[in-house]
Every structure is written in structure tokens, then in C-alpha cells.
Specification:
Layout (H helix, E strand, L loop, with lengths): L5 E4 L2 E4 L3 H7 L8 E5 L2 E5 L3 H16 L1 H8 L1
Antiparallel strand pairs: 1-2, 3-4
């Protein structure tokens, strides 16, 4: 567990992530991270949960229409 301290960044308050956390998240300057609320707290992740929902729908369509997609790919 890492203890993070809130700090002033301009006129806002922010958290500076240590290099170790950035490396484990596989993110760097300019990347986006997402804070999602869980039952027992919050989760920080580099993966967009909304995008994952859209991709799951796309996977369902691709499974259902597999043969048509193969024909279109020819």
C-alpha cells in the first residue's frame, strides 16, 4: 500500500503518483486514468470502464455474426 498526500496544483488539489505506481499502472505523462467507485472504496485504473461495456456489446455481435464478418473480410 502506498500513502499519498494531497497537494495544491495551481488552484486545484491533486495527488502526485510515485514512479512505482505509474510503472505498475503502465501509464505516463499525458495518459488518462479512471477513478471508479467500488463497494469497498475507489479503484484507479488505466482502463475506461465505459469502453469495456461497449466492447462487450461488440464482442456479442461479432460472435453472433461471425460468418457474415468472415465473408466481408474476404
Amino acid at each position: 500500500m502506498l500513502k499519498l498526500k494531497l497537494t495544491t496544483i495551481g488552484s486545484s488539489v491533486g495527488v502526485i503518483l510515485p514512479k512505482e505506481a505509474l510503472a505498475r499502472l503502465r501509464v505516463g505523462k499525458g495518459d488518462s486514468i479512471f477513478l471508479t467507485e467500488e463497494q469497498d472504496g475507489f479503484r484507479v485504473t488505466p482502463f475506461d470502464p465505459e469502453f469495456e461495456k461497449v466492447m462487450e456489446s461488440a464482442r456479442k455481435v461479432m460472435r453472433k455474426r461471425r460468418n457474415a464478418l468472415r465473408e466481408l473480410a474476404k
